[in-house]
């Protein structure tokens, strides 16, 4: 392989020499003929055949020498300003292919012509940085998924082992069976959310925009949690503007309201309050979901839309940290906005703005 590269390099150098030789021969010959013609006319000198032969030999020697000098200069220029940056880029690309996303290329700005590679190097470095971030997210995602899958599986395995005891009382048997069922339900919910989030992030789910009554949809979503608010004696406060229609994907928006309401009821203590409001103008519809739960600090609030992030670990068994990530992705796909205001110990308010048309 090395011998092949050397042969190719030799033929390239020979090709460049021939190009410079032909160019130099053409221009120097033209210049010499012009010079001799003007000299002969102006000084009335007749050149003998011997003089012409001597001039031709000197011209040929000059052409060969100049062609060789230009070839060497061009070879050095290409080595420093073209081949060296290309070797750096190729070596860095090979490292990225091997999984090393920390590689960066130092900019080439000191050699004539090398600065032309500056935009390529800059784009390469930004690409490597983006790939490094994606790889970190992928690694974290796999680690989080593994952890989240391991927990319910461990519960199911442990309680399944306990159920195999022959002298187990019926009450404990039912309790263990219920625990296994809850863990299985949580596992199924986690897998469903992972699949939904994957499809949303890869744009495999395309919104189907239809005109529908947002007020009616919100009422239906709230009623789905009737058992939850009655169980915890939560007060429901609603202020929904009537007959608010929007053009959006109804199924995806249901996912948003169900996740926000589920979190509100989950974090609101017994006897607390959950509020839902809907206002609209000619351009946007604004939905707010408020709770009187534990709230969160600004540090936690800055991360709540990240996958698998759970600020309140006391409720970790009731969720998997994907709900708000799904909400954020859906709102982005529908070209809406979502904001959260929260104070520790005072509750949280989520505001979703959806374009009506």
Task: Please write out the topology.
Elements lengths: L1 H42 L5 H49 L20 H46 L6 H32 L8 E4 H10 L2 H6 L3 E6 L4 E4 L1 H18 L5 E8 L3 E8 L6 H4 L21 H11 L3 E7 L3 E9 L2
Parallel strand pairs: 2-4
Antiparallel strand pairs: 1-3, 4-5, 5-7, 6-7
The name of the CATH topology of the domain at 210-355 is: Heat Shock Protein 90
| Number of DSSP strand runs | 7
Helical element count? 9
Structural class: alpha+beta
The name of the CATH superfamily of the domain at 210-355 reads: Histidine kinase-like ATPase, C-terminal domain
The CATH class of the domain at 210-355, by name, is Alpha Beta
Protein model, in words:
Strand 4 (273-280) and strand 5 form a beta hairpin. The radius of gyration is 38 Å and the shape is elongated. The chain contains nine helices and seven strands, in the order ααααβααββαββααββ. The chain has 357 residues and is an alpha+beta fold. Among the domains are: 2-100, no CATH class; 210-355, Histidine kinase-like ATPase, C-terminal domain (Heat Shock Protein 90, 2-Layer Sandwich). Helix 5 packs across helix 7 (250-267) and helix 7 (250-267) packs antiparallel against helix 9 (323-333). Strands 2-4-5-7-6 form a five-stranded mixed β-sheet, with helices on one face.
């Amino acid at each position: 392989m090395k011998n092949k590269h050397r042969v190719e390099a030799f033929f390239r150098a020979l090709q460049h020499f021939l190009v410079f030789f032909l160019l130099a021969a053409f221009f120097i010959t033209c210049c010499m003929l012009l010079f001799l013609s003007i000299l002969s006319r102006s000084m009335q000198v007749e050149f003998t055949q011997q003089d012409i032969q001597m001039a031709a030999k000197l011209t040929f020697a000059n052409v060969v020498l100049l062609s060789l000098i230009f070839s060497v200069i061009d070879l050095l220029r290409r080595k420093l300003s073209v081949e060296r940056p290309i070797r750096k880029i190729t070596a860095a690309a090979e490292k990225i292919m091997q999984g090393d996303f920390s590689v960066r290329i130092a900019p080439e700005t000191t050699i004539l012509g090398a600065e032309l590679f500056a935009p390529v190097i800059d784009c390469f470095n930004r690409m490597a940085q983006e790939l490094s971030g994606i790889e970190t997210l992928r690694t974290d995602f796999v680690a989080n998924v593994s952890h989240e899958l391991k927990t319910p599986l461990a519960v199911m395995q442990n309680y399944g082992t306990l159920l195999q005891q022959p002298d187990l009382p019926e009450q404990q048997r039912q309790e263990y069976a219920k625990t296994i069922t809850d863990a299985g339900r949580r596992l199924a919910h986690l897998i469903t959310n992972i699949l939904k989030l994957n499809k949303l992030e890869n744009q495999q789910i395309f919104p189907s925009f239809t005109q529908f009554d947002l007020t009616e949809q919100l009422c239906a979503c709230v009623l789905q949690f009737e058992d939850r608010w009655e169980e915890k004696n939560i007060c429901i406060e609603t202020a929904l503007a009537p007959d608010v229609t929007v053009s959006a994907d109804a199924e995806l928006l249901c996912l948003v309201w169900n996740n926000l309401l589920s979190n509100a009821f989950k974090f609101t203590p017994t006897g607390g309050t959950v509020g839902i409001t809907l206002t609209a103008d000619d351009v946007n519809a604004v939905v707010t979901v408020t709770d009187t739960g534990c709230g969160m600090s600004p540090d936690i609030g800055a991360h709540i839309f990240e996958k698998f992030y759970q600020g309140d670990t006391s409720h970790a068994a009731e969720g998997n940290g994907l709900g708000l990530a799904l909400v954020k992705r859906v709102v982005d796909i529908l070209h809406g906005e979502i904001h959260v205001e929260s104070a520790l110990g005072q509750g949280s308010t989520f505001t979703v703005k959806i374009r009506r048309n």
